[in-house]
Amino acid sequence: MTQQPIIKVQNLKKYFPLRRGLIGFLKGAPIRYVKAVDGISFEIKKGEVFGLVGESGCGKTTTGRLILRLIEPTEGRIFYNGRDITRIPKKELRPLRRELQVIFQDPYGSLDPRFTVASIIEEPLIIHKIGDSSRERIELISKALEEVKLTPPEEFLWRYPHQLSGGQRQRVAIARALILKPKFIVADEPVSMLDVSIRAEILNLMEELREKYGLTYLFITHDLAVARYFSHRIAVMYLGKIVEMADSDTIVENPLHPYTQALIAAVPEPDPSNREKRREIKIKGEVPSAAAIPPGCRFHPRCPYAMKICKEKEPPMVEVEPGHQVACWLYAKA
Q1: Three-class secondary structure of residue 22 per DSSP
Q2: What average pLDDT score do residues 33-55 get?
Q3: CA angle (56 as vertex; 297, 85 as ends), nearest 5
Q4: Which residue range forms the structural domain that includes residue 205?
Q5: pLDDT at res. 265
Q6: Shortest CA distance to 245 belongs to which of 321, 167, 136?
Q7: H or E stretch covering 25
Q8: What's the predicted TM-score (pTM) here?
């Protein structure tokens, strides 16, 4: 694995404005914003699986969409292979679509029910003008289906999504992402809607494809156990911010941020002896609204270790040990 980052994100932000009611508009009330992503920075190395973990609504999917330029950032910069792609026009962005692909969470919703498998996978080939004839494109599609273990491909080419199982649908979605031979893929909870028995198969398939084609993944999930199994490094997000980042084993075995500790404690542990060693931490309340983020550390209303400074100032991200960063006043100097 090389050390050159394929993706670099600097102070990335995405604020969504909230609609004002008539009374608020007449009174000139200020526009409020949902701070979905609020100033995050990280790098993803070539050939790496970078896990992004957190509760629903923390900004994981928005981050993935921002990197792919499916939505426009409010602030910050996005680099792909050293090139700033934050504000490049759509004409220049289109060729990059071949190299930047996505696997969506819901294989039921991401595949058009009116299209056959062949039509679904052929669409990106037509858009990017790959293949001189329909026969040539069908050959490429058949190879892609073989890559994702849908064999023989002739049995799947002319089926519709409703004729496939959940695992088969997700394999079609992976084939669609692979057909353009991308270099970077955002995998947005690709196994969360699949049966537990199929999840390991899909993750193993994605790992095989990564090794074979030198792919790089941004792996978005709410499940820390799955993230540890599949990712090289993990960043933990809370309410639009990254609160801890390290390699996957360090995050699970030595979590420093109270929120990360709570996520680890929530993972079921089948071995009673390991359960006794686990650091238990109880957090209170619910996740605040991204439209009304608490001052200071945004986790302080739920944190059992909250101090006075936590309510007043936002903690900086500090490197506690090589490669292990955390944003918490327990480790930062005021």
Answers
A1: helix
A2: 95
A3: 80
A4: 5-99+182-326
A5: 83
A6: 321
A7: helix 22-27
A8: 0.91
